[in-house]
Each structure stands twice: as structure tokens, then as C-alpha cells.
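REQUEST ID: PR-0412
SUBMITTED BY: lab tech R.K.
PRIORITY: routine
TASK: structure prediction, single protein chain
INPUT:
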Amino acid sequence: QEDYAHNILKMLISADLEQPIKLTQKISDFVDVKKPLDLASLNSYNRLEFKRLDVAAGLNELDIKQIKQQYYPTVAGFFSAKTTFQANDLNIFKKDPWIPTSLVGFNVNIPIFDGQSKKYQLEQRYVNGLKIQNGRTLQQRAIELEIAQAKIGYQNAWDRLQSQQEAIDLAQKIYNTITIKYKAGIGSSFELTDAEQKLFENQNLYINALYDLLKAQQALQKALGN
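STATUS: complete
OUTPUT:
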């Protein structure tokens, strides 16, 4: 079974089946089987969904600001200055043929009527703002529900692991007792084989429960945005 699991792992990481591999980490590096997570303290979350909604809300506010500014009159000023050469010859070093000219002016643009296009654009942006706000509220509720469900899943997985550990301890005690009886000649080999089989079964169930706890912990971290 160990060789089979190694071959599956090699296939998943695209390694040669003949290449030896060695696991350098343990389950304890990822999950603590002796101390559960403090679920009460895991309330804050950092989900990318909110960042996207914040960006969308910010862009919508900029659109509203830009449309409102179209109602304001615009004033533009301009100034130009130049010197023109006028003479009967090409002697540009003379002073008199150079005639200076300057121009100063203002341009005022006052919006009067645009067919209410800006009004409709503003109304649309306000509706978009409400949609983003409602979407944020719904997203927050969905995330909080996901976190609550993940906490329940983790707690259930932790309880199953502890229960399975107790079952292993009990099966180990029974196996030890029957082993002593068997060596003393007052126990049968059938009882010893049956106790050993039940011990192995409980150990296998413990491994499955440990795997479920690891998955539940990862699901919780994912729900928190970690």
C-alpha cells in the first residue's frame, strides 16, 4: 500500500516511477492533533471579492463625479505673441520692419440643454452604486455563512479525530490484555487475531479522520481568505 501510494504521488508530480522520493514533512507540520484551533477568534477575513467590489464602487463614484462636472461652465484663456517682419528687402537685422503682435482672449462655455442625457447617465450610475452595495451585502452574508459552515466542519472533524483516538486507546488495551492471556495459555489465538484486526481497523479509521481534519482546516483557511 505504501509503494502504491508513492507511485500515485509520482504520477501526480510527473516524476519517473523508478525515481526514489522521500517525504520530508509530517502531518504535524500542517495540523495540530493535540490542540484545536481557537474558532472564536477566527472572525476576520480577507477575501478578494471585497477588493473587487471596492474597486468597482470607486470607479462608479469617479463616473458620477465626471458626469456632474459636465454641468459646470468652462472658462478657457489663451494668449499669443509674435513678431512679423515686413520690408522691401531681406535685411532682417533692421529694427523697424519687425512689428510685434499680441492677442489675449477668453472662451466661456455654459451648458444649457443636452436632452437630459447627463441626467439619465447619473441615474444609471446611482443604480449601479446600489447594485454594488447590495452585492457587497449579499457577498458578506455568503462569506460569513461559508466561514460558519467551515467552522462546524472543522469542529466535527476534530471531535471525530478525538473519538477515534479514544477507540484506538481502548482497542490497544484490549489487544494488550488478550496478548498477556494468550502468552499465559488462557487465551485463544482467535481472540488475539480478532483483537489485532480491530486495532488495525481503528488505526485506519484514525488516519481517515486525520485526513478529514486536514481537509476541514484547509477549507476553513480558504473561507477566511488565507
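NOTES: The mean pLDDT is 90.
REVIEWED BY: pending
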